[in-house]
Amino acid sequence: MELPELIIVLVQPETPGNVGFVARAMANFGISNLSIVGADPREDEQARIYSVHALDILESAEIFPDLPSALEGTHVAWAATARAGGNLSVTRAVVSLTELPDPTSLNGKVALVFGRESSGLTNEEIDACDLVFSIPTSARYPSINLSHAVAVTLYDLFVRYVPKRKQALSGARPATRQERDQVCKFIDEVMDCLPIPEHRKPIMKRVFRNLLSRSYITGREAFTMTGFARVLRDLVLEKDKDYSAP
User: Rounded to whole angstroms, how far apart are CA atoms 116 and 99?
Assistant: First the structure.
């Protein structure tokens, strides 16, 4: 498989035929791992017919009750959306498909998350992912069919990054979600101790998480950042004690 790191995650797909087309697109670009959140379409006649020679991908798909459970075991998750937050949205900035980093650079599992045909992903589902991307389209009709969105995304990643597989891959282990969360935990504690207006703290914490999520960091880098954040937290707490001492 040319892109074994990738896992396609479909959140509550509404048309079984689309799931079949997705499996077919995955086969076109050497992807075999399919996860589906919601109803099981694997025995649906349309899904099976439209998957054509990718029936094995459809049949081996894993079914999950919700997105968090589907993302367990993955290292990063990139969510597709037609909504663009723009520069003024610090809650979740959206990058272009062409700005996605190389999923082959580390030996980790990358989930590409696609939402419902009618309404896409909810804000909560987007928030569960590390990075949000959109496919450049005409402003007249920005919405793309689910299977088309998957095919375009895989084509872009395939063309840009598969030739690089001839190069030696990094032996570094990618950071886990738990390791990145640990960094954020200590940074949150630092911000809570600083003289920052309370209404600004959630925004600052969100911005830091956005920056960390867009960085495909290694486990060693996460370990180093955690150590730095812990020392910084302890220094701030110690300084706070000095100020409050009689």
Answer: 23
